[in-house]
Design goal:
Helix content is 3%, strand content 37%. By secondary structure, it is mainly beta. The termini are far apart.
Length: 161
């Protein structure tokens, strides 16, 4: 035989009897077999890191103290699994409530963000995804928020005689 290949599904490696965790490095050795017997094991080779997409961010909520007429504050938590590689950044997608997600803001390095430049009195929907060195998560839960603020304090009443 001049060449051989072997593919082991990740699902096999993370299940019994191996239980390899996301982010762990694995290495392989091989043996050959012919009619006589098995060869000695090869040197270690085929090093790989077990990676997958991160879990979706969780707990996306709006921040009332930041939300105003033309901006909405958002905060969330990282997903439960990073997929074996740290989360690099987040993407916020948003659009008007009755329409599609028309805008994405990429490269957000923290778990909070203030979306600015919104139209006062418009209701928006928001969702977030995470990215690691392997790929991207699915989107988080969706939140809906009216871009508005508390009205100014009215003048004191006066009596007319």
């Amino acid at each position: 035989m001049s060449a051989a290949a072997c593919t082991v599904p990740v699902g096999t490696l993370i299940a019994a009897p191996f239980y390899i965790e996301w982010g762990q490095t694995i290495q392989a050795k091989v043996t050959a077999k012919n009619i006589v017997n098995f060869s000695p094991e090869s040197d270690v080779g085929g090093t790989a890191i077990i990676l997958t997409n991160p879990s979706a961010p969780v707990g996306l909520v709006t921040v009332p103290a930041i939300t105003a007429a033309t901006q909405v504050g958002l905060t969330w938590f990282p997903g439960f699994l990073d997929g074996g590689s740290p989360v690099i950044d987040y993407t916020v997608a948003y659009g008007v409530q009755s329409g599609s997600y028309s805008t994405t803001l990429q490269g957000i390095l923290t778990t909070s963000y203030t979306v600015t430049g919104l139209t006062a009195g418009t209701t928006y929907k928001f969702k977030v995804l995470a990215r690691n060195s392997y790929g991207v998560s699915i989107y988080s839960n969706e939140v809906i928020e009216l871009a508005a603020q508390i009205p100014n304090k009215p003048f004191a009443p006066i009596t007319l005689i």
